[in-house]
Give the backbone structure.
Amino acid sequence: MCAARLDSKHGFMKQNRTLRTAGGAGQGGAYEGRAKTAFFWKIRRMLTRFLAAAFAAAVLIVPAAMAGCRKPAAAETSEEMPAEETQGADSPLQEGEDSAAAVGDAASMVEADGRLFFKYGNAIRCIDKESGQVETIRTFGEREFNQTFWVCGKNLYFDTNVDEAIASANLYGIHMLNLESGEELHLADLVAPPVAIYVSDDELYVSGAEMNFIYQLDEEGKTTGELSPAETIYAKMPQGCRELYGKPLAYYVERYGYMPVQNDVCLVIADADGSHAREVPEATNTSAVIFGEGCFFVLLQDGNGTGRCWRYDAKTLERELWFESAQPVTLLQYRDGYLYYSANGGSRIVGEIHFYRLAGKGAKEEQAGRIYTEPGMLGAMDGRGNFFASGDAAYCQAIQTDGVYIARTEFGGETKLLEPALYESPLRALGRVEAELKSVPSEAAQGETVEIYAERLVLSGEGEAVYRMNLQMEERQHEVLAYGEELAKSPTVQASLTWLIGDVTYQSDSVFCIEAAGSEYTGGAHSAPFKEYFVFDRATGNRLGLSDLVDNSQEELQALAGAAFRALAEERNFAFESPEDLEHTVSDDVSFDSDFYLSEEGIVFYYPPYAIAPYSEGFPEAVVPYGALRLKDILQN
């Protein structure tokens, strides 16, 4: 299904697709393919959450700690992370018994030795609970990805997934970082990215979709060999059962004193030694389950869409109803006698998440936190917001206009932003972002609405140049809003349009370049993203084109851009055509009206999805270095 977008120059419609870069060529060559930017990941997260929210309207909640009592294949794995499971104050494994014991989940936070470890963006970080200081522990490279981690004593265990384009071998691996010395070791190679890592005494558990590895550890936490399942807790698993998808079996048994597993039908609860296995038939693939010491919680949905959360005794399976909700909720954590969960508010586009805690059946829910996204930061929330309750406070992301922080909220008290920020918006040095949200009744279906969200950058300062730039940004915002209102007249039942101000890709004393990205959703499997860039002359406020920036002829630009895309295709093999044919296609197409933007390395030419490459490649782009161009004075300053 083809969709359309607003043309960046004339306001007409062009066919376009997803926001995702194809990657870049290696360093040192004459041409470089630009790598994925931070703003791409920001938009990708926003689109993923939008589609997930649309699905949640029909299904209460995806399975959290289990999936239909069956471990799904890799292709069926949901992007939703498992619900949080943490020990209560009287857990079988007391913190006093083993100070190295950690609790939590890499999808939110892992608590160990007075620190809270968590992941945001491309780095694993930690919070010192006493001082509130945030520290970056391990940053992952441009094409190095991380799925999960765990902490045990002085060691951080984590996985890496290296992009194939730069990997010579061993794409997936497990590593250990000594938190005291900073020494990092590669422990083992993997065949696929893991879902969870857990360290139990002298054993390292690595689990994933149809994948389990157990390693023996020495006193320093280094691997000494691989163990067979028969030598571990897996030997005690009830016949016909398998571990839950989300955490290694050893975590549940050691933290809670019983063994939750799954058969082909439903959830199964056994004693810690695997005996007395008993089914929980109502806990199936439409349920969300979290676990605690001596009990567990199941969220069930009836035919009317009402969700009911039941607390089960882990030994007797007796249950009692804790709460009901007509609104979709997500179970997050059970700790110190409190059940924590979240509910979404706001619109389909601008989300607002409220966190609550409940002390028991009939108790009044208490506010435990809130995440609201300010203009200019839509999509900046990573994962489920890193919510985690510990002691007398809860921690979660705070999305401010100037960046993303971790906020500490005392129960019944104040909220404090912890420093430093996890992400600082590059826009704050230029001005502020304002937004307008509209809900327009759909003409296709009574009661349905088309949601339109459009941002604009309001530059700081005074003078004619600032006025001219702000006027152009405002006019573009109004064009997007007007087009969104036209969507309401289409036969689409549910539609949305977003327009976001994103990254500052380049700035100097004379010129700066702003990225803006949009997404049009009119049904189907995915939305149709589009983007454009605003290159402004600071002195005049004029929007600049290629002819304002370079003295090269069109033929020279065609040759340079064609060679750049050929080099990119030779490295990544991303295009419909061969590298040679792609070079000719680009050379014939490039003109002074071509889509481009400025980066620190050079002028970047880009194409919409499906123009020269499959949808999965997103916006292919390649850099022509400044050194290969004859630049006008405005770019030489």
Residues 465 and 541 are 4 Å apart (CA to CA). The chain is about 15% helix and 40% strand. Residues 546-637 form a domain with the Actin; Chain A, domain 4 fold (CATH 3.90.640.20). The two ends are 46 Å apart (CA to CA).
